[in-house]
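Pasting two entries for a bug report.
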Amino acid sequence: MSEQASATIREMILSLLRARGVESVGETEPLFSSGLLDSIAATDVLMALESEHGVDLADEDFDILQIDTLQGLETFLSARKAA
């Protein structure tokens, strides 16, 4: 996973947040579990990870909480890149 792909997903999340009136979010602030982003936004993010960035989310070890923060998303993408 390239840095550009990570930046694209990050910008998508920030755009979804702005559309919901959230102007900024901390790196470790929960996105989905806090309700800042809903299940529709989660679906959009997951579909982008799969279709645009080739991430296989069918892995039985995947949990949405792995990408519940911007920092978690970076960690998740870095681990996928290394694999």
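Entry 2 (this is the one that rendered wrong in the viewer):
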Amino acid sequence: MILDCDLNSEHFSTADKLFCLKELICNNRFIEKIKPSRKVIMKEFGTVKDEKVYLFTLTNKNGMSVDLSTLGATITAIRVQDKNGKTVDVAQGYTSADCYTDYPVGHAGGTIGPCANKIDYGTFELNGQKYELEKNKDNGRTHCHGASEGFDIKNWQYNFVSNGMKFTYIKKDGEGNFPGNVTVDVTYILTDNNELKIIYEAKTDKDTVLNLTNHSYFNLDGEENAEENSVLNHIVQLPASSQYTVNSEVAVPTGELKKVENTPFDFRTPAVIKDKINIEDGQLKIGAGFDQNYCIDGYDGKNLITVAKVLSEKTGIELDVKTNLPGFQFYTANHLGKTTQPLGKSGKRYQKRSSLCVEPQFYPNAINMQDFEKPILRKGEKYDRTIIYSFQTQK
């Protein structure tokens, strides 16, 4: 069902209002005639702080579809066909907005910001001024993923664009104690090549720290495979990473880069996760599995580089990840499975190591590290980074 499209909403352009009105009047029959490149279904997804949350479904000509929520500019579902022609939802997610705000769901599918990953001791210095942030991890030592002011629990504005959706959030100066009034746009484009492009753009009126990523949890066997260790049969290749950042005892980079060669972190050639995750290694112990930032060879901040390839032999579905960010977190969902988690879309609670994440990013704690590229957005500059999740099916 397509619900009332809020034709009085400031989020809609005149063209979008006309499109929505015709959708409603025609009961969706004329969508393809009016907008041949765009088929969007809009539904209510709950309420947060007395604001309606909406869910949009994008569909391409191949039948691939993606669900996107205004809450957190979040991916809640990605459906692709497997080698037998069956539609498989490969992204973990939940059935309503309150699941994301009232329970710990590990930021599932959300847009992470203002600064993804950890900032050690919850402090940084910018232009000679010290900023103290909320410390929400590691017994009050580190700041992570924006803490209680994270972008993934904000209700974003929305606009329709060709083949996709644009979500906008305006962070006020001092919100979360990060400087600057920052306007952030996250645009999702679903192509007919089964690519989900995520384009991050931002501008600020004051120098600030900004490090944005997406935190989707993938199981290419299908999200209903929620049992513990169910992702460990996936085959992973990280072809552009010959180094990773070494972590401290609280999983914050020490500044040392280490070669992956002769370590469990070497995925330059395809390997099954279960063949590496239980190898005796101090860094694996710190993360309780894979939870490491990988460095991207050949990074220049502009060109898109393929950083990960993930394959399910069961379904034949392959996920490729491209980005122009300098690193990415490879995470095997080692901390899912809390009894306080809500049930997922299939009515099951997602357990430990039932999925994996590939989160392109600036290196964790980079703002405090001398030799890491710092995620500083200057007044007058434009933040412009991209992540592409693309899918293909091996027969």
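Dev reply: Rendering is fixed now. As a check, the viewer should reflect this: Residues 1-36 form one domain.
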